[in-house]
Specification:
Chain lengths: 239, 239, 239, 239, 239, 239
């Protein structure tokens, strides 16, 4: 039934490639099928101004899309002179998701910026960004630990994200672009390694959805993030 | 247990005052306790450029906050030179929520802009905006119908929104500012007159939340939006 | 002769409602007929950078108009990305007018920002803003005095403003929108409680005007501001 | 008594040099003492969008100041990313002043932009701009007439501007920078060749001023603009 | 003598990988050592407004750098609200270089935009962009030809670019970051497949350079672009 | 053969007029034929933030063009809200050129900003700006020396710039606007008083150019800058 021939609860092929750039403290090229996002984590040895003296660190995220990551070329946001509303919404979501697993006192007064730049888009760029962004962040945190800059790893557990949707009346996992354009409802779930919910966002694009749809999509999302977190652990060497 | 002394499932006092401005085609001053939002609906007799020739109408929303609507003064966005990420996120949400009940072919090639300006804020400005914005929109649609510009009312049913949260471990309805600053989880629900879900957004501010929390908050939200929709019907004279 | 049926020297009905918002240190909802402006005064316990160490305080004003305060909707300035020239001109005028009655050494190194937001416009928004802004400012100053933050009230006297115009060849007081659109000359006067002139601005929209017109309009303005200042004193409880 | 040794009613040396640039349809380098402004008038053979089909022309003005026209260098507005409030206020004033003598139907559907760029500033830049801008505009209008593009000169009479002030308690004509920084009241008058008032702006910088001050300054301004208009006529060859 | 151990006239390892993205009409991932640039060519079936009716096409370029392409993170230009001067200078250079080999009448009234986004930077990003951008452009042009949209390939010959410099007194080819930071002179050459010069830019960073330096660097650049063009031909299958 | 009737190696008439503005520490009105640029040098007694504590000074340049300096009026950059790419490119070039002759330790921790504002344009504005900007800078440096703020003149030698081009197949010196619009190649050379090369920029506008063209143009540029530097020395009183 799905354009891709996938089962309702089947994700696209996912890969997480680490250490893909020379300069960043942590990096991960994440692929959810044809959606490719380059995630880098950059450590800055001072926190934002409003945290000075607090003893706490900060993790923030920025999101961008190359102009021709999509079917037709989009105007470059740097040329337009500002980030669009969608971009800001996504990067605020990524930042919140990642901070959910950060031990901010352990991080200390420094800031880690996770940049998620979409090289190619085919649906699910925000969930891929969170999933890959976590890997980049974890690698940067490991580097701090190895250097003795922190006393223990300032990351607690894992976090991943996946989309679900109602497509032709069925709840499905991990929408690609074709499904996404056509789905009645579009949802995103951010879930931790222990199954805790960090963020749930579900939006009816056409008809309103029902309570049982939410329940079904949540179950799919648990399955999906479970698989993603297994891959994160594998690539990060977490037992 | 709640700072306001309200029961867990008790909303603040809500009022919807209509026809509060002289110029707008529809207007509603909505109050959720100390949160006051002035909503106006403005009809423009041509649609956005991308809809020309489609026969479809459009409803969009803009959101703003007076600089001193809050405890301390915020910088005016017109002075800052752009709308912040939070503002854009909220106005995109309001627009999606209202469009869920718009019959766009019946509206025809025109645009209605719903402006939601917060005069005083005490938590829940986005849910008040959706609830009051719907009333303003409905009034403007009635005006179109009375003038014979549309053949039937281009609105199908009602839509309202309410926040819920997990506060000191309990699921509660309609957070005010004090609770909002302190809640472990913050959620917003947009629900139609028939109980269909238009938007669900739940965010862990501290610890992740559990599936049962989502279920509890959804039940509270159904109760709350039911009461709001009853008030909308009363003020709009809908049987 | 006037569209409203008023006498040449008759102002619209004026009201000054104080303490209309919960958060601001001073607030006043001013109405000149159908022109409604919400004025708030916000105290900030540090002055602008260029006054540090001077022992002097500062009073500044910002002006805004809700998008549908007018007959047809105007683009939101926050969306446009900047304040228009008219907006800046008006807020600079309001600031100058208010500073004319401020005792800046008595205020000390703090800043009071007076926000004037037009909820509904029907001509004369700048003069209503000055008149209501003064009330909000005075209330904030009283709060400083009561709290012992200043040794005496940092306000000297009162200030109010009114428009005049040449309409169908006659000098008239307090133009409403209909008159304003049609007036040959449009003028604004800012005058103190003792009758001193703070600002005179007169602009020929069509034919140039004559010296005697200026004299006539000044006399009308003295009458008008006299009445406004009586109302300010009443609402502020100034003997 | 004046720093420059001038009499109370004495203007600085004024010169109007025409045809100072190669490309503009009209140009005038105006000097009021050490204040030097280069004014150019540029004809565009189509009106602003909102005038299409109206048969009417438009005259607009822009004002700028070279970064080091002043005692200390000011930030270039092109670098700052916007025109300041003062700049916008001034260019709006210049535009209004010039339009007061334009025969817009005779001009027809075209636009003339008068650019006033301050090469060196010593007080009175806005009045010099209006005075010199009129000359540039007139020259451009003559060019239209000579080319047969208009049936008669689309300018009716002349317009000039001068500042006055209250300096050490005395009304004085044509403030230079030293006086301007120190004046109790600062005023600008825009007056036509027949003595009609186009714009009167008087602002108390310190103490409020009195009615008789306004009368005195108006008389000085009449004298000053009379002299300026004589110079305009001379340089333009108007009988 | 060079940090990399390369001979004075030795380029870094260069690779040109084509068809690296799914959506763009042409794409090339170009690597000059550790400098990696993703180049895409996007065809738009209408030209810029100023070319309508001319029968001519246009090729333009945009350049960007991921925030962490460099040693330390740079602020994202979309966040900063504008493209920096360096970015604009580079993208103007790329556009000019590519247009030098475009047959604009053959291209017809369409526009090709070449986006060059630096994924990792180690010196020479602008020369890599031109070299890889040409490949992406050529692929897009081939697509137009295959589709019958143009009657012959709208590209004449090839174009490539390479940097040279004076490093420790010696003329060297293809500076990497370490050399670039330390070079006395930095130069860029854009050269066609037939050896014609399209652009020469040489800048003394420290001491001025001499005529013979320019001659030496030009000879090196000819050698380098010869090698680059051979690679371009190989990957594009040009005999 | 040249539209102006000049010989191939003949510059336009050049003049350098100094001390043309009252406020700037150094100023020069430079004319290359009908190209007129007003250059001012402004000393600021603190360096840019990134140089604090370094003991080094900085020289920077800004470039602007009056809206009607050209054949048709250009939009004012302050109105457009940003400097265009061409403007930024030129001002970066001027800054680099001037810094080539600055002794930054001798200058000490201060900044000199050289503003180059084009009053009238007829080709070669950037080379005129560098040539006149050097004179303004030198005058400001002399003022520092006379005041005892520096121990020796923080300028080493002279710098000037000239354009060359290939026009109708011939290498020519100092293009005016007519030639510039029509030239096959356009080049700019920045050269010191001792004949050292500071910057070489040559761009093919049509067909690529050959090595011998570069050689010819370089020879012309040496001749031209030789003449310019003689004029600089004369006006500055350098032996």
């Amino acid at each position: 039934m799905r354009p891709s021939g996938r089962a309702l609860d089947q994700m696209r092929e996912v890969s997480l490639e680490i250490d893909v750039t020379k300069h960043a403290e942590g990096s991960c090229l994440v692929k959810f099928g044809d959606t490719h996002v380059l995630c880098t984590a950059s450590i800055e040895e001072k926190p934002p101004a409003w945290l000075r003296g607090s003893g706490l660190g900060w993790v923030t995220a920025e999101y961008g899309m190359l102009p021709r990551a999509t079917h037709t070329r989009n105007r470059r946001e740097a040329t337009a002179g500002k980030q669009g509303g969608r971009t800001q919404e996504i990067q605020r979501l990524i930042g919140r998701a990642l901070r959910a697993v950060v031990d901010r006192p352990a991080l200390g007064e420094r800031q880690i910026t996770v940049d998620c730049d979409v090289l190619q888009a085919d649906g699910g760029t925000r969930t891929a960004s969170i999933t890959g962004g976590f890997v980049a962040l974890h690698l940067a945190a490991q580097k701090l630990l190895k250097a003795g800059d922190v006393s223990h790893l300032p990351i607690e557990g894992e976090v991943a994200a996946i989309s679900c949707g109602i497509y032709k009346g069925k709840s499905v996992l991990d929408l690609d672009y074709l499904e996404d354009s056509d789905a009645e409802t579009d949802a995103n779930f951010v879930i931790t390694g222990r199954g805790g919910l960090v963020e749930v966002q579900a939006t009816a694009e056409g008809l309103p959805f029902m309570d049982f749809h939410l329940t079904e999509m949540l179950a799919l999302a648990k399955k999906g993030t479970g698989e993603l977190i297994a891959k994160q652990r594998a690539v990060l060497g977490i037992a």
